[in-house]
TrEMBL record:
Keywords: Iron, Metal-binding, Oxidoreductase, Peroxidase. This is Dyp-type peroxidase. PANTHER family: BLR4509 PROTEIN (PTHR30521:SF5), DEFERROCHELATASE/PEROXIDASE (PTHR30521). The lineage of its organism: Bacteria, Bacillati, Actinomycetota, Actinomycetes, Propionibacteriales. Residues 271-296 are annotated as: Disordered. Belongs to the DyP-type peroxidase family. It holds the Pfam family DyP_N. GO terms for molecular function: heme binding; metal ion binding; peroxidase activity. Its cofactor is heme b. InterPro entries: Dimeric_a/b-barrel, DyP_N, Dyp_peroxidase. Residues 283-296 have a biased composition (Basic and acidic residues).
Length: 445
């Protein structure tokens, strides 16, 4: 075992920063014939980029290949190997929906088919700086898939960075990613040293100093990472209408929106710009993430319950009780659908939202912990009845507290602004792991 990251074996997707602008496509496949499935993997491997290549120079397009538990079963992976994977991955996201807060309209009964079903076996994520480059790589993958009748395309979702560079809610996203030790990219927050590589990639020491549990055999698990995929529909008109109803004027409307998110729409954090937006700060990738929360314990600048502060509390928690670094992960958000025009308060019926992808070595203590303990619950901030005002499981009766002098303000009756349309737990092996899967035979099972 070596601590040096094998960047020639790790798939590029988890470690590669996305360019701006970019476009992408997510495709899900069903494997009806194991032999065809393994042959398809062999054909796809030359289309993949190792992490080293994209860290040296942004490619014209790059693809990530990942598998669900049922997908590995369908390819003929031995049961002994299947049993060695993380329990969350083996159970699948639909089976864990209640724990994750995916209930009501967000429950699996309402998910977009075939998300959450046993038919989802292989996930292909392709991204590129421009549409022509994306189309070329997707077409090469399509031609490979067409050669094998035992493989069906069962779902596709095109996505993109909106022209504004922001999410459908209007806020700049992708701020605050952790730097990963061994990758070579400097952290944008000097107060947060790079996290250990084993928090993201299997086969390396993590923040505990030990090795994360790794699937067997070694060739399959090493240099792989778990990938959490979620399609989230955003109710933008409801969000805008709620802010308009709560605010006395447009300035207060913008401030309340910033308080709920933890930063202004430009990306300027409340921790550095508590009173007014600072677009120049928001556009600076180094300055906009150079802050901590310890000097704001009461949340007078950024509420403790704001979305960004919940998702990454930084130094605001008691480190004797909670080590925030154990819950850091790579987050990638991509928009789908057209933006609701500025100022429109009525729902136009268009399906729009975010494809969220989380990558890490510990799906339980990373994605699931953050989702259940920090986003869905308020106990850790002393507000047990409050959940994340933007992405929490709201039912129309929730509250959100805005600390201020002389009297705090409490927003009430928060409706759901985000609805889960489906999701999957996947595993993205290293390139050698993919070759092992491609070379499986009936005898090796």
């Amino acid at each position: 075992m070596t601590d040096a990251l094998d960047l020639d074996d790790i798939q590029a997707g988890a470690l590669h920063e996305r360019p701006s602008p970019y476009v992408g496509t997510y495709v899900l496949l069903r494997v009806n014939d194991a032999h065809d499935g393994r042959r398809l993997i062999r054909r796809l491997i030359p289309l993949l980029s190792p992490a080293r290549s994209v860290l040296d120079a942004t490619p014209s397009a790059w693809m990530t290949v990942a598998f669900t538990y049922q997908g590995l079963q369908a390819l003929g992976v031995p049961q002994e190997s299947l049993d060695s994977f993380a329990p969350e991955f083996k159970q699948g996201m639909a089976a864990r929906a209640a724990e994750l807060g995916d209930v009501g309209d967000s429950g699996p009964d309402h998910w977009e088919e075939p998300l959450g079903s046993t038919d989802v076996h292989i996930a292909l994520a392709t991204l590129a700086p421009d549409q022509a480059s994306l189309d070329e790589l997707v077409e090469r993958a399509r031609r490979a898939q067409d050669e094998f009748p035992g493989i069906d395309v069962i779902w596709r979702q095109d996505c993109h960075q909106l022209a504004s560079g922001r999410t459908s809610f209007g806020f700049r996203d992708g701020i605050g990613q952790p730097a990963v030790e061994g990758v070579g990219t400097a952290p944008t927050n000097p107060g947060e040293p790079p996290i250990k590589a084993g928090e993201i990639v299997l086969g390396y020491p993590d923040e505990t100093g030990g090795l994360p549990p790794m699937p067997t055999p070694d060739v399959l698990g090493r240099n792989g990472t778990y990938v959490v995929f979620r399609k989230l529909h955003t109710r933008v008109a409801a969000y805008r209408s709620y802010l308009r109803e709560q605010a006395a004027n447009r300035r207060e409307e913008a401030l309340l929106g910033a308080k709920m998110v933890g930063r202004w729409q430009s990306g300027a954090p409340l921790a550095l710009a508590p009173d007014a937006d600072d677009p120049e700060l928001g556009a600076d990738p180094k300055r906009r993430n150079d802050f901590l929360y310890r000097d704001d314990p009461r949340g007078l600048k950024c509420p403790a319950g704001a979305h960004a502060r919940r998702a990454n509390p930084r130094d605001s928690l008691d480190h004797d009780a909670v080590d925030v670094r154990l819950h850091r992960m790579i987050r990638r958000g991509t928009s789908y659908g057209t933006a609701l025009p500025d100022g429109v308060l009525d729902d136009d019926g268009v399906d729009r939202g975010i494809i969220f992808v989380f990558a890490g070595a510990h799906p339980g203590r990373q994605f699931e912990f953050v989702k259940t303990q920090w986003l869905n619950d308020g106990i850790f901030i002393g507000a047990p009845q409050e959940s994340d005002p933007l992405v929490g499981p709201q039912d129309g009766s929730g509250t959100f507290t805005v600390p201020r002098h002389p009297i705090r303000r409490r927003l009430r009756d928060i409706p759901p602004f985000v609805v889960t349309r489906g999701g999957e737990y996947c595993f993205a092996p290293g390139l050698r792991g993919l070759r092992w899967l491609a070379d499986l035979t009936e005898e090796s099972r």
